[in-house]
Design brief:
4 strands, 20 helices, lyase activity, Fumarase/histidase_N, two-stranded antiparallel sheet, Fumarase C, Chain A, domain 2, Fumarate_lyase_N, mainly alpha, elongated, Ribonucleotide Reductase Protein R1, domain 1
């Protein structure tokens, strides 16, 4: 497996994905595609219907002689022919004549890979919808939980934690739309023969391909060329973009769970050990796995771009590479999604620490609030200049911002002390954070209910 694992990986439910990536599952999928091909050819009169029926009956992995397959591998040096030979041996002599009729290795292997990836993709969507539901819960529950907004690593103006979750939801909904939109291009059927021009089958070959596509529930490629790899790159790009959003969430959890922030923490079960030498350690295990696997996933698409540009009608170097990197991308994404689902479901929000940090600058973060009041009277530029001088004075001299403001005659003339104190409270300057959080959670729930 190409993902990066740790002890946490053993506790997570992969929803059957890893089983789909086993050799046994691969061989059975090859058989399933060969059956679809034979059935289509039988229906269209290309091969006898009886042969197609017998092929379907014998297309079970337990009927394959894997010892014999390994012996043939040693002799022929081909990755697919040994499988075909033992499948032929598993059928009666007459039906065996029609196995893999008019097809080439990559027709079966690439169609099989599409079929397997489609099944995994469905589980990816199930993970993603659960993550969105978890974040919708957070957005609603923490819609009014005030915290410091941050830009460039410094306090900006106040927001709520629900708003932060809504921002993540917004970007994940884009990722969901992207993942659904590419399905028609990524999960396809190809049965065009050696170079994709139906040389050995002619017009009936197109009909066969279309029927195989119907049987497998995946559209047929317009031109079933083995040298078309852009849909695979597009899918890996979609995975990378999805991983990037989850990476962002994990980075923030990783950073803000540091004791100096203390705003959130991963869910923790008693007995979990963080360090072999430091008994007190409770490490962000879910987050670190998301971050590491996402960083590795990003690198795969660039490799695909180079290989996709290979010339001519087929190239085994590209076939080999895309088999490898697409599988690796799926493995990495599985680990990321498993961790992200548990992270968002069990995330602990420390409201007291969020409030404490929001008040850390003693009202300085609300300087825009005061500036906008003056802007209505003296214009934005002059208002910015006035409040800037007072804010920087407080920051550089380490004076209480309230005292600096109250010492200024313009401020004293504009506000009573009570009014000023209210304007300096973070909870009084969160804009539409709460409304946006609740509305986004609502949209999120409506969207995932349709999937």
């Amino acid at each position: 497996m190409g993902a990066l694992y740790d002890s946490k990986s053993k506790t997570l439910d992969d929803r059957g994905i890893k089983k789909l990536l086993t050799s046994e599952a691969k061989y059975q999928t090859w058989l399933d595609v060969e059956v679809a091909l034979a059935q289509a050819q039988g229906e269209l009169g290309v091969i006898p219907k009886e042969a197609a029926q017998h092929i379907a009956e014998r297309a079970k992995i337990e009927n394959l002689d894997f010892v014999k397959m390994d012996e043939i591998y040693q002799k022929v040096g081909h990755g697919f022919v040994p499988f075909l030979k033992v499948f032929v041996l598993a059928c009666d002599e007459e039906s065996g004549k029609y196995i893999h009729y008019g097809a080439t290795t990559q027709n079966i292997q690439q169609t099989s890979q599409s079929l397997t990836t489609k099944k995994i993709h469905e589980q990816f969507l199930s993970f993603l919808t659960d993550i969105l539901a978890n974040l919708a819960d957070i957005a609603e529950t923490e819609a009014g939980t005030v915290m410091a907004g941050r830009t460039h690593g410094k306090h900006a103006i106040p927001i709520t934690y629900g708003y932060k979750a809504a921002t993540w939801i917004s970007e994940l909904l884009m990722a969901l739309e992207r993942m659904q939109e590419v399905e028609k291009r990524v999960f396809t059927t190809m049965m065009g023969g050696a170079v994709g021009a139906f040389n050995s089958t002619g017009e009936i070959g197109i009909a066969v391909q279309n029927r195989v596509a119907e049987l497998l529930g995946m559209p047929a490629m317009m031109i079933p060329s083995r040298n078309i790899n852009s849909p695979k790159i597009e899918y890996m790009n979609c995975l990378a973009l999805l991983a990037n959003v989850l990476h962002k969430i994990a980075e923030e959890v990783f950073q803000t769970s540091i004791e100096e922030f203390g705003e959130v923490s991963e869910g923790f079960s008693k007995g979990t050990v963080g360090s072999s030498t430091m008994p007190h350690k409770i490490n962000p295990k879910l987050s670190k796995g998301i971050i590491a696997n996402a960083q590795k996933l990003y690198s795969l698409t660039s490799v695909g771009y180079y290989s996709s540009a290979r010339p001519f009608e087929a190239d085994s170097t590209s076939n080999m590479l895309f088999d490898g990197i697409l599988t690796e991308a799926v493995e990495l994404m599985t680990e990321i999604l498993m961790r992200a689902e548990e992270l968002t479901r069990t995330l602990q929000i420390n409201r007291e620490k969020l409030a404490k940090n929001a008040n850390l600058n003693e009202g300085l973060d609300n300087s825009e609030y005061i500036m906008m009041f003056f802007a209505e009277r003296i214009g934005k530029d002059k208002a910015h200049e006035l409040v800037y001088e007072l804010a920087i004075e407080a920051a550089l001299t380490h004076q209480n911002y309230r005292e600096v403001l109250l010492a200024n005659p313009d401020v004293r003339q504009a506000f009573t002390e009570t009014e000023l104190l209210e304007m300096l409270k973070p909870e009084n300057y969160v804009g539409l954070s709460e409304a946006l959080a609740r509305n986004t959670a609502k949209i999120c729930r409506e969207t995932i209910a349709t999937i």
